[in-house]
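[step 3/7] inverse_fold.run input=structure_tokens len=108
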């Protein structure tokens, strides 16, 4: 696990340029870049599904040692990703977590 965190830590690096963020968003349906963060709101059928999604996403985030800013209201989960160690800007680490989150979202 330590080696994975070391590699992902190096991934954080420098903030991405606008063109790099745009390219990443092209592979992340429904995600946007707002106020220096990747953002998406997922809507589920029920609170139970929203919470299940948050738990699964939480495991992915913890494995990467990269934790999202998120809120949950009933069946909606709003997520914002940026890297505090890079001045609160979007980095490759944010894009990698967004891809993992997108892959586990069965709805949204």
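[step 3/7] decode complete -> sequence:
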């Amino acid at each position: 696990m330590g080696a994975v965190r070391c590699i992902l830590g190096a991934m954080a690096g420098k903030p991405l340029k606008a063109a790099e963020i745009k390219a990443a968003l092209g592979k992340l349906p429904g995600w946007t870049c707002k106020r220096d963060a990747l953002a998406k709101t997922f809507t589920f059928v029920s609170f139970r599904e929203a919470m299940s999604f948050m738990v699964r996403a939480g495991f992915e985030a913890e494995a990467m040692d990269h934790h999202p800013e998120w809120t949950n209201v009933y069946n909606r989960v709003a997520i914002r990703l940026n890297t505090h160690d890079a001045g609160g800007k979007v980095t490759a680490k944010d894009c990698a977590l967004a891809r993992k989150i997108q892959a586990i979202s069965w709805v949204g």
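[step 4/7] annotate
The domain at 2-104 is CATH 3.30.1360.20 (Gyrase A; domain 2).
Residues 47 and 74 are 5 Å apart (CA to CA).
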